[in-house]
């Protein structure tokens, strides 16, 4: 179970990891490609791998900060809505990292500062000579410093600067490459957060769609199982009525009912079934109804003989046919039930009409139609069309659904 969960988590985060790997490979390959083009152009004779390694070492602190941000700071602080804490920790961590890097490898800056200070000391010992830019008639030398508003001019070459080591601790941080490195770290953190937020939104949308799908499937199953007991209750009532009237018809009805139950038990659990099986089911149901009624009830059926590979949700049309026989047949008057289905292009046209003698709708009839409308809405969204025409002598239902 843990392996399956780990594999699923790996697949979910694989695109995000691939982006990070691609970006870091580009960063590492930039100095190599630059040296290669210099070699091709003739500027250098051999690849300067030492310079490439130095650049890679300079990139190493940023890679360290990226790993900490990607695995610790972003998931446990930023994505947990602790934005202020995240910003403070990120700044402190970046400052500490770059300070440690400067302490570990200070040779180049220190040597450069020592060289500058040694030149200034040597120049002070030798004494300044006349400068070409001094105006004629004006004294020159260190005893008459340049002044601006009564203060020594900092731009004057003889203006003494305090040694680098005697400055306050925070001053060196704002001189040299520190601000540049902090800016790069800020851009790197921002890029990391942007990628994480993007893929988090994608994963949230997928989870929401999966949740909606599960909810829809649960509601569809509930509506379908609400239709089935209603259907079998009416069928059993029909068989009960035939037992005393015609035993042979009752036996034949039980056979037809067994076929219907086999379809409901083994086929209706599928999300889609072939239209031919659904029409076969409707034919069995209509034949069951023919056994019950006399010749005064005219039953017309028109189904296509070849439906090809068309598929439909199971038990999609039987509720209309069931209501037609239940509310459209009279034992005292001539009645009719007409069922027609056609496949026209990319649509299925279903029409069910019946004589209308029972104007008052009982509670169960209303529940059946409401369930049908809910199921159609869940299955097809806005891609279906259901129209019901209830007149004085005819109840007509027309349904258009797309071909699956």
From TrEMBL:
One GO MF term attached to the UniProt entry: phosphorelay sensor kinase activity
Ranges of Basic and acidic residues composition bias in the record: 114-136, 150-159
Keyword Translocase set for record: no
Sequence segments annotated as region (Disordered): 112-160
Keyword Transmembrane set for record: yes
GO CC, any one term: membrane
Boundaries of every Signal transduction histidine kinase internal region domain copy: 219-296
Record-annotated membrane-spanning stretches: 12-33, 53-71, 83-101, 178-199
Keyword field: Membrane, Transmembrane, Transmembrane helix
Pfam families linked: His_kinase
PANTHER family cross-referenced by the UniProt entry: SENSOR HISTIDINE KINASE YPDA (PTHR34220)
Protein name: Signal transduction histidine kinase internal region domain-containing protein
Organism: Bacteroides cellulosilyticus CL02T12C19
